[in-house]
UniProtKB/TrEMBL annotation:
It is an enzyme of class 5 (isomerase). It comes from Photobacterium halotolerans. This is Putative glucose-6-phosphate 1-epimerase. The keyword Isomerase applies. PANTHER family: APOSPORY-ASSOCIATED PROTEIN C-RELATED (PTHR11122), GLUCOSE-6-PHOSPHATE 1-EPIMERASE (PTHR11122:SF13). GO terms for biological process: carbohydrate metabolic process. Keywords: Isomerase. Belongs to the glucose-6-phosphate 1-epimerase family. Signal peptide: none annotated. GO terms for molecular function: carbohydrate binding; glucose-6-phosphate 1-epimerase activity. Its EC number is 5.1.3.15. It catalyses: alpha-D-glucose 6-phosphate = beta-D-glucose 6-phosphate. Gene3D superfamilies: 2.70.98.10. The active site is at H163, E265.
Length: 290
């Protein structure tokens, strides 16, 4: 995605502009430390490219930016549930329009904060009141934090994920470490299986690592770099790649798209979290290149 080619609709500050791509409004950051883009549809990070590196975030060449369906790639916000436990899959936050609450443009970094709250439409899907704040900080690293607050008079349950699609040069050369000693295999009837904490790739993978370390590393020799992911507020790390067979069935992924991506997600995917009225939960991920 060439961010500089996006037509500017509003200049917000020296390094931040509001742009339009097909059917979605995009906050574009062109800063000396990095380039980045966030879609207000979904509160969805589309790109993060620190100075001197290729984009750390993968975006499908066939992604749908109509604003009618979730965007393939980037960092979708899965909330208030993870997976297919209810409809729509992965919740409604990733297909809702978020509001720009604030931004801060500094010489060393940029911050952007979005908000999402309940509406009659959301309460028809999930009958609770809530207020979500999604905070981004951009410099040499990317920090994303989702704060979920119960503004209802009743407790409610939540799960979710920052469903990060990482860009890799060649998935068959990549190696992920820091995964702990066991996982649930979504491709083998949710069997709980042991692992040595390191994963290399030669086929589809859909796993929930319940004992992953807070910090994981993705070795990417094809791009001569190592990505570092540090997560907080999670109970699992979800790792996913659909491989050739899965990509072939996706209208919004090119047939070879799986070769340059890997999802490594900061997730609440074990037991759901209960928030009482007034309580909040923070889920975050920090990503950098070495």
């Amino acid at each position: 995605m060439d961010l500089r080619q996006l037509p500017t609709s509003t200049v917000l500050s020296e390094h931040i502009s509001l742009c339009r791509l097909d059917g979605v409004d995009i906050i574009r950051i062109l800063h000396p430390e990095c380039q980045a883009a966030i879609s207000l549809f979904g509160g969805h990070l589309l790109s993060f490219q620190p100075q001197g590196h290729k984009d750390l975030i993968w975006m499908s060449e066939a992604a749908d930016f109509s604003g009618k369906s979730p965007i393939r790639g980037g960092i979708p916000v899965c909330w208030p549930w993870f997976g297919k436990v209810a409809s729509p899959s992965h919740g409604f936050a990733r297909s809702s329009v978020w509001e720009l609450e604030s931004f801060n443009d500094q010489k060393s970094h940029v911050t952007v904060t979005l908000t999402l709250h309940d509406t009659p439409k959301s309460r028809a899907i999930w009958p609770y009141r809530f207020h979500n704040r999604l905070h981004f900080e951009f410099d040499k690293t990317l920090k994303v934090q989702l704060t979920s607050t119960n503004t209802d008079q009743r407790p409610w349950h939540m799960s979710g994920a920052l469903h990060t699609y990482l860009a890799v040069g060649d998935i068959m050369q990549a190696k992920l470490s820091g995964l702990g000693n066991e996982y649930l295999d979504g491709l083998a009837d949710q069997q709980r299986l042991p692992t040595n904490g390191v994963l290399q790739f030669d086929d589809a993978v859909d796993r929930v690592y319940s004992r992953a370390e807070d910090t994981m590393y993705l070795e990417d020799p094809a791009l001569f770099r190592r990505l570092r992911m540090h997560n907080h507020g999670h109970d699992s790390a979800v790792v996913w790649n659909p491989w050739q067979s899965g990509a072939a069935g996706m209208a919004d992924m090119t047939p070879d798209g799986y070769t340059t991506m890997l999802c490594v997600e900061s997730a609440v995917a074990g037991q759901s979290i209960v928030l009482k009225p007034g309580q909040s939960h923070h889920l975050s991920t920090e990503i950098g290149a070495e």
